[in-house]
Amino acid sequence: MTTTHGSAKWQGGIKDGKGAISTKSGALTDYPYGFASRFEGKPGSNPEELIGAAHAACFTMALSLILGEAKLTAEHMETKADVTLEKVGDGFAITSVHLALTAKIPGADNAKFQELAGKAKAGCPVSKLLNTKITLEATLQS
After folding, report:
1. Quick one: average pLDDT of 15-29?
2. Quick one: fold of 47-140?
3. Which pTM does this prediction carry?
4. Is residue 48 exposed (0-12), middle (13-18) or buried (19+ Cβ within 10 Å)?
5. Domain regions of the chain by residue span
6. Given the DSSP bridges, would you call strands 18-23 and 6-11 parallel, antiparallel or unpaired?
7. Widest Cα–Cα separation across the chain
8. DSSP assignment, residue 52?
9. pLDDT for res 71
10. What does the pLDDT read at residue 65?
11. Tally of CB atoms within 10 A around 56
């Protein structure tokens, strides 16, 4: 078992306030986030992009494990996770995550690749955490 952490600081109101996020590893240290970066496309981070990065990383690692169990090794895999935040009722909710994977895996046929990618989507810990619709588009490059 492993435990790690991320942290956030905030000062001010929702629209004029400013926040900073940090990770245990130091990959992010007091990186800015706020209303403008979350809802208005301004510079800075937001929770949804962090969830997307975490989901893409988790899914891709899970697929690497599953490929290894099938005696396959990826030459290259790249995953993008589009996280959708929408107004729902009186608040907001993450309503979906779409994983888009491109991979080059010597010796894999498309049917097996799709099967294994689907297992990774269902089995990765971040997928299990998220209570939302998760879709997958997996492209095997030759």
Report:
1. 95
2. GMP Synthetase; Chain A, domain 3 (3.30.300)
3. 0.94
4. middle
5. 6-40, 47-140
6. antiparallel
7. 55
8. H
9. 97
10. 98
11. 23
